[in-house]
Every structure is written in structure tokens, then in C-alpha cells.
Amino acid sequence: MADKPEQPADEKLTLHPRNPHRSRYNFPKLIKALPALRDFVFDNQYNDLSIDFTDPEAVKTLNKALLKKHYGVAHWDIPEGFLCPPIPGRADYIHYMADVLAEANGAKVPEGSAVKVLDVGVGANCIYPLVGNKTYGWSFRGTDVNDTAVSSAKKIVADNELAEVINVWKQGIPDAIFKGVINEGDQFDFTMCNPPFHASWKEAAAGSRRKWNNLDTKEKSELNFGGRNNELWCEGGEARFLNKMIAESVEYDSQVCWFSSLISKKETLPGCYKSLDYFKAVDVKTITMSQGQKTSRILAWTFLDKTQREQWFANKPK
Asked: What residues form DSSP beta bridges with 44?
């Protein structure tokens, strides 16, 4: 029976210890990595260097600089209107899942291309595969239902010569999550997802307004700018999406070591725990991540017991 936490794990008030973005942005070094960022940097009211986080072009250029300086990604861009994610928070997901894998690998994070990750909803930005590959050398399969997002992610991969370790697939079954992208013979060490959190466009817009209203209190933004419908909302919101994901995951219980997803609303967790218990997940983890005023959670579950997970990594090519 799944171990259903009564509440999320201990609150983590800062980014993961291995996250290179724990300290404030070093704008002089970022400008050195990407001179184009200089046009967007200014002294704010606290006499600190900053950018205008209400300017999507400034935020995108900051992302370009972060990716180039910290991950060696020389070519990155996204189409207008698509999600421009906060890289520090995305990197946290990668590092915490690395810790989950390490538990069955002699407390050592498994590295190298033999570690396979499935990113459900890779988006036009392809951030998770870029960060995961550049940090740990992992291989990724990224999937998305949106043609433009798939084309954008593929271009990022090609422009950075990463096709051998990152491949991007169109999910041709719009209502499916794993079906059609996990094939017979595939094995993934974990799956990850940043699901559409909202139940409607109206709800998504209200959430965005709250973020904009709070923006002037933030020295380092953790906001997402842009986002198409399938990135921000879906019918039933994250609760329905997660329950569907959990139900589908049973069909691939021996092909995936750990399934995981971000959870935005803690109110979503009880229903997920109930579903995981119903489908007989063996182990369930809830990892709370905090970045400034923003809190999110990773929900991870597996159908493999501890011995099976240890054997999984013992059999993995070194």
C-alpha cells in the first residue's frame, strides 16, 4: 500500500543545495556571458542591478543568459506567447528527482546518458531536458501536443547539437499522457511533468493578475510569462490531469521506475493520494519546493518495491 503522507515533507525555504541559482543573479557575469542582456539591466530602487520583470523580452533575455552561463546552451529562443519559465525553479525539480534516484543507487546520483527521462509536456522552451542533460548527462524524450511547441523544442535541440541525447515527439493522442509515447521495450528512470494548473482560462488569467500585482515586491522573479492554453489550463485543472496521469501510469508500472509531476495546489494532494492508494502504488513521495514567496510540490510515485528499484539501477549500464 502506498505511503500516503498526511502533509507535505518539511518545507524547504531555499532552492536545492546543488541548484546553481541559490544566490541573487550576478548580472555582471550574466552580461559577460550574453552581452545583449546589458540593454535590460538597470539600478533598481534598492540600488541593486535588476531587470524589468514585466517586460517579456527582458525575461527571455535573462533566461538566455542563465542558460548560456550555467549550462553552456548557446542557442535558445521561444515563439511569441509561449511559456517562458523561471529557470531556478525548473532546475530544482531536476535536482530533487536526482535525489530520489540516488536512494536506490547507493546514495549516489546516477549520471550519464543511460539515465532516461520522459518529460511530458516539454513545451516550446525545452528547459527540463536542457538542464537535466547539461547537469547530469541524462537522456530525455520530450513530448507535447502542440505542433509549434514541438517544432521549437526540436530546433533548440538541433541548434545545440543535442539530438543524440534529447529527442522530441509529438503526442498524437491528445487525450493521452503516456500512451503513444512509452512504447514496448522502453524504460524510463523517471517521468516528469509541469501540468496545466488551472481549470479555465478565466482562472489562469486571475492567477496571472495576482502575480503581476505582487511583482514589485520581488527582487528575483519566479513568474512564468506567456503560455498557451494547453500550458496553463485544461478542463478540470491539475486535479483531473493528475488523476488521469496516475490511472495511466499503472499500464507502465514495470517500464518506469518513478512517475512524477509538479503540484501547484496542496488541495490537489489528498485526491492524488487516494488514487495512488486505489491503484496500489508501492511508494509515494511529496517534496515541497519553495522559491521566495512561491511554493510548489513534486508528487512522485512508483509501483516497484525497494529491492526492485535497487535492482533497476544495479542492472543499468555504467
From this structure: none
Report d(CA 178, CA 96) in Å as an integer: 22
pLDDT of 6: 40
Do the domain assignments include residue 138?
Answer: yes
159-178 b/e (C-beta count within 10 Å ≥ 16 → b): ebebeebbbbbbbeeeeebb
Q: Is residue 32 part of a domain?
A: no
Q: Alpha-carbon torsion 195, 198, 200, 205, what sign? A: negative
Q: CA 2 to CA 253: how far, in whole Å?
A: 14
pTM of the model: 0.86
Residues 127-172: tens digit of each pLDDT = 999 999 999 999 999 999 999 999 999 999 999 999 999 999 999 9
Cα dihedral 93, 98, 99, 100 in deg (nearest 10): 90
Residue 158 grid coordinates: 538541433
H-helix segments, the chain: 27-33, 56-71, 87-102, 127-136, 147-159, 201-214, 229-232, 237-249, 269-278, 306-314
Decide: 117 and 135 in contact? Cβ < 8 Å.
no
Rounded CA separation 288/296 (Å) = 6
User: For the chain, how many structural domains are there in total?
Assistant: 1
Can you give the residue range of the structural domain that contains 257?
83-314
| pLDDT one-digit tens code per residue, 173-209 | 988 999 999 999 999 999 999 998 534 344 444 444 4
Q: Is the pLDDT of residue 25 over 80?
A: yes
Percent of the chain, pLDDT > 90?
Answer: 71
The answer to whether 70 and 15 are in contact (CB under 8 A) is: no
131 φ/ψ angles, rounded to the nearest 5 degrees:
-65, -45
157: CATH: 3.40.50.150
265 with 238: CB under 8 angstroms? yes
Indicate whether 12 belongs to any domain: no
Q: Are 234 and 241 in contact (CB under 8 A)?
A: yes
**Is 44 inside a domain boundary?**
no
